[in-house]
TrEMBL record, chains A, B:
It holds the Pfam family ADH_zinc_N. One of its GO terms (molecular function) is alcohol dehydrogenase (NADP+) activity. The keyword Zinc applies. It comes from the Bacteria. Residues 11-294 form the Enoyl reductase (ER) domain. Its cofactor is Zn(2+). This is Uncharacterized zinc-type alcohol dehydrogenase-like protein. Signal peptide: none annotated. SUPFAM superfamilies: GroES-like, NAD(P)-binding Rossmann-fold domains. The lineage of its organism: Bacteria, Pseudomonadati, Bacteroidota, Flavobacteriia, Flavobacteriales. Keywords: Metal-binding, Oxidoreductase, Zinc.
Amino acid sequence: MSEVKAYGAQASDANLKELNIERRQITADDVQIEIEYCGVCHSDIHQVRNDWKNSKYPVVPGHEIIGRVTQVGKNVSNFKEGDLVGVGCMVDSCQECDSCKEDLEQFCEKGATLTYNSKDKHLGGHTFGGYSEQIVVDKEFVLSIPENIDAKATAPLLCAGITTYSPLRHWNVKKGDKVGVIGLGGLGHMGVKFASALGAHVVMITTSPSKSEDAKKLGADEVLVSKNEEDMKKQAGSFDFLLNTVPVGHDMNPYIALLKRDATMVLVGAIEPLDPVHGGGLIGGRKRIAGSVIGGIKETQEMLDFCGENNIVSDIEMIDIHNINEAFDRVVKSDVKYRFVIDMKSLKNKN
Amino acid sequence: MSEVKAYGAQASDANLKELNIERRQITADDVQIEIEYCGVCHSDIHQVRNDWKNSKYPVVPGHEIIGRVTQVGKNVSNFKEGDLVGVGCMVDSCQECDSCKEDLEQFCEKGATLTYNSKDKHLGGHTFGGYSEQIVVDKEFVLSIPENIDAKATAPLLCAGITTYSPLRHWNVKKGDKVGVIGLGGLGHMGVKFASALGAHVVMITTSPSKSEDAKKLGADEVLVSKNEEDMKKQAGSFDFLLNTVPVGHDMNPYIALLKRDATMVLVGAIEPLDPVHGGGLIGGRKRIAGSVIGGIKETQEMLDFCGENNIVSDIEMIDIHNINEAFDRVVKSDVKYRFVIDMKSLKNKN
């Protein structure tokens, strides 16, 4: 346990007592959830390690939460004890601003309350995430999980899933479109699955030829190795949409060259300074670069229902909470296919 | 004359003879134009000075051409001798590809024939522009100039005008939108006039407080000095659209912060590597950066008609061709309000 505590914490009852952290009590509008599974997102690591210089300790990360309802407040009518539910990156927002009214809580003008490391309206202090036994969440931020798909493999849908589904839908990717997914990791592998399910001709664009076979299994129609200049040239100006999941700044000019006139490349990974883009590459085809972040609650539910209907889940590797530090290190090295999910029962085991 | 010849040429008949350049003869589909005025675009200077390393000498620049029809080919029915006409940045395109069929000849998939320094389909060699006594142009690339506005001040509409009008229209700027025009030069001053005529609330965004008075005369409702961090902060997240006319790479992050969620900043000036953009600034509001270049012939005619109806012309300073080198130097120093136009009669004078 000492290593974990060095940068973060998981919230077993014993831990909480030791850290003098109070559990949030359920209110009339809340749903109490016993957490069964929690996905491991790269941003968990950034927060635990304070890479973004805004972490508040103790950090209890986790925003890909799957569990069963154990109790509901008296105003809650859409969930009942025993329901399989999920909680993603947000647990609250102002619910009054234009963005919230348009079901885009991720852009709440007062700032959405993130699932962890965000100001807690109820208890003060900051919120604690899903590496925990339970969580209490406002009913408007609880999602219904289809029972017909593998519950543990739905966890990553709450972040990696909606992060890739939302831009594909917002930019209206449709049957027959040629869509490139750049980068095959947690986000990229969901991007390929969704774009394929939407009927697009999906090209996995990667620096690693070794990923070809996997990409095709996930649903890619083609694999384009970005280091192969000849192949990149052949596909120049042919893409209707590019989903760029690369988590760090990188040379985007070769990708911009792949776009058709008026087409867009959406960034969902890199929240840091990007390498210089050549203005001529955008101007010469009225091309666009945009950003996108998760999705609103309504769209997240739509995505989950879409996954139920199309039998889409994440490819996962299950771990116990005791292996979290090793898992973090492996995520940083991109050594996971394609998402770790913690079995939260392991939190109750002796460690 | 020696200085001009050092990097370019103007095409008087005497010059042409000396340089052994043949004039293009009129075909059945062509319009012959006696040039009266030609605007001086910054790209004329780039080409003449070979800044882009693709100039072909002798360069006869000029793509903001106004003149009178002197002769038409037998297939030409929409123009007749004496008509006031214009020629902009293109004189031909394949007229068969998807872009051409969509009236977007500037994105012709085979490459539009630019007015100068572009491969000449008729004579071989390269095309020669408007710093000349006359020009012969395919009828599809000749524009009709409204007679009710000052002819010499319409010249810059053919490049600076359409470059700013096209993105404002394409991104559907409308009455009540809050539009920022970044940079007050040849392009920016037209951007302010058009955005204002379209009914937008126009904010001139400039580094120079000294430009405030001028910006307001041109139609800006407000001036925002981008160096004033406090003022920039106050206007964060409030713009529906930004037209960025800055001709060189620059820090765009403060401007991205000005955009509303889902809003776009369009670049029309900088065709060179841009400074690094922070991915978080785009992702945090699903914001967009795009490029745009001139406009198609149909849209250019629409813009000219709009100018006729709304009494819009460029603010110009007239020069003789003999002062062109001085004018070039002044353009480079941004010492012009806001566009030089050459009186082409001066080409016939002794020099």
